[in-house]
Amino acid sequence: MGRDDQGINKGQRYQAIIRVLVFLRNESDVLLLKGASNKRIWANLFNGVGGHVEVEEDILSAAKREVKEETGLLVDSLDLKAVVNIDAGDSDKGIMMFAFVGWTNNKKTVASQEGALHWISIDKIEKYPLVDDLYWLIPRIIDRNSNQPPLYLHYGYDQADKLVIREAN
């Protein structure tokens, strides 16, 4: 099957922007990035590290690259914990997000333009201003057993533009 046979026809099929989101662990802490005040989205809010998947990358390579770019840390392994389809309000476009958890023995990070990195104790994480979905997502994936399949989720928004999270059965 060639490129033209892949079925990419603008406006005829649902298409998604692919993103990765990574939460690194070190003992009882998780590494979060406080978005820079000039960020277009999630300014001054805490999030995992991550970003867009480039054309030549697979999902795992993109996650490792984003960790390196945003933290300076190299990680050997990341576990896929959630696959999220995000309804961005466009009938034929959305976002597919792949959420990972990994471990590191190194807490020494390098600053990036994305924001300030903070190691935060997992038992205090809900006291921080997080990106909306993380209050729900982090407790469900942070200690998820590697033998369990990833969560399959759909994020959408109600009439008041409030986040609605659905988990597949």
Keywords:
169 residues; mainly beta; Nucleoside Triphosphate Pyrophosphohydrolase; 9-stranded mixed β-sheet; 2 helices; globular
Helicity level: 10-25%
Average pLDDT over all residues: 91
CATH class: Alpha Beta
Number of helices: 2
CATH topology: Nucleoside Triphosphate Pyrophosphohydrolase
**Broad shape:** globular
Going by CATH, the architecture would be Alpha-Beta Complex
SSE string, helices as H and strands as E: EEEEHEEEHEE
Strand content: 35-45%
Q: Which spans have pLDDT < 50 for at least 5 consecutive residues?
A: none
Largest pleated sheet: 9 strands, mixed
Structural class: mainly beta
As for the number of domains, it is 1
CATH superfamily: Nucleoside Triphosphate Pyrophosphohydrolase
Structural commentary:
The model has no long low-confidence stretch (mean pLDDT 91). The protein is mainly beta and 169 residues long. It is 12% helix and 40% strand. It has helices spanning 59-71, 134-141; strands spanning 15-26, 29-35, 46-47, 49-52, 78-90, 93-103, 115-121, 151-157, 163-167. A hairpin with a 2-residue loop joins strand 1 (15-26) and strand 2. It has one domain: Nucleoside Triphosphate Pyrophosphohydrolase (Alpha-Beta Complex), CATH 3.90.79. The protein is built from two helices and nine strands; from the N terminus they run E-E-E-E-H-E-E-E-H-E-E. Strands 1, 2, 3, 4, 5, 6, 7, 8 and 9 form a nine-stranded mixed beta sheet that branches.
